[in-house]
Amino acid sequence: MSIASIILTTAILSQTAPPVAGPEVAPKPAEKVTLERVYPQGKRLTYKLVSKLFSEERDYSMDTFMPEVSGTEYTFMIDVLQRKPDGIATVLYRRPTITAVVGETALSDERRVNVKLDWILRMTVSPVNEVLGMVDETPKKPEPKKKPEESTPESSEWIRSTSAASAVQPELIVYFAPYISEIYRLASFTGSFDSSLDLAPSFPFDPVSVGETWKKTVGYSPQPLRGSKKAAMQRLDYNYTYRGMTTFEGKSYQWVTAELKVNSDIAGFFKGQFSNGDEIPITKVPLKLNANVDFYLDPVTLSPIKTRARSEGEWAMWSTLTPGQASAEGRLKGDTTLDFVSATAIPAAKPSKPASKPKRK
Asked: For the whole model, what pTM was predicted?
């Protein structure tokens, strides 16, 4: 008997009978959970946000990119005044100050600009972190004359004013600055409550299982229409995903992630707003951004404990004035953290001073 025959015979004899098929069992459906934040009545929740933006830009006259580091830092408090049985809460959002940071460069040292805000916003918020109503209760003060370096740091133009590209082809880039600035704002995860991390994440209205997704609009940008060369303003959405329980830095959390993608060319949208758009020398203005956020939430209250956000993007402006190269271009990376600091009792309000009685003559 050949070796091949021996191997074949051994293989046949060593086989066991196939198992008898039993009754089919339907797969167990994935367990769904309701994601709702519990706002603890009577508590002041304190958070610290640190946002850093690493950017580098150049114009057509430069061989290398000019790097720059900018950032935003602030602490905010959420005073939970009341929580109704349906979970809707009345809160005071407080942000006393904000610090804008411009990193050290070859021409200057690091600059930190502290701006006093004293924000007090009375909000009605739902368990899915939707703002249902908001009243500005910030004390009104006469606006002092601001020095040039004390411009409001949350303004995208404040960031843009320190960049090399702001001086490139000013008669052209000024028209695209609002759209380019939107990329910088989204990359730094600051701005309005729709796009910032302060009241994030947004939760779905329906129960979800691990892996299910939902969307939340955080902004708008010109996007190409499907099957057309034209573009129109369309919404930019965070795509959220429920990941279930996880461990981060040695502790257990409920884990939710979010992703944002921007990939558009706004040249056609801009030129389409003018009757002589074909005469404008701009050929393309691509905008790209990829942003990812990890929310690590308290397993019981679903309050954010640690939030880690990263972004990477680029933009360029091409025109017939600088054939073969971009008139201006930039690349950017964002790194933002939001950390829970403490939960304490809301401080008692200071008693108001009684009105002084008029003196008798």
From this structure: 0.79
Question: Which is more confident, 48 or 151?
Answer: 48
Task: Please report which helix (H) or strand (E) contains residue 67, including its range.
Answer: strand 66-83
Average pLDDT score over residue span 78-104: 95
In terms of C-beta density within 10 A (0-12 exposed, 13-18 middle, 19 or more buried), how is residue 250 classed?
exposed
Q: How big, in percent rounded to 5, are the helix, strand and coil portions of the chain?
A: 15, 45, 40
Per DSSP, the three-state class of 361 is coil
| pLDDT score for 354 | 64
pLDDT surpasses 90 at 52: yes
Q: Which amino acid is at 111?
A: R
pLDDT band at 31 (very low <50, low <70, confident <90, very high): confident
Q: Which of 50, 48, 47 is nearest to 335 (CA)?
A: 50
- Name residue, tokens 């995208």: 156
Is 10 a residue whose pLDDT tops 90?
Answer: no
Tell me the pLDDT tens digit for each residue of 231-270. Answer: 666 678 999 999 999 999 999 999 999 999 999 888 887 7
Q: Contact at 8 Å (CB) between 188 and 333?
A: no
**Beta-bridge mates of residue 57:** 66, 330
Return the structure tokens found at 331: 């690349």
- Residues 224, 257: contact at Cβ < 8 Å? no
Cα distance between residue 115 and residue 164, in whole Å: 24
> Cα–Cα distance between 97 and 118 in angstroms, integer?
6
Q: Which token pair is 112?
A: 């930190």
Please give the sequence-ordered ranges of beta strands (E in DSSP) within 211-302, or none if there are none.
213-224, 231-248, 251-265, 282-284, 286-297
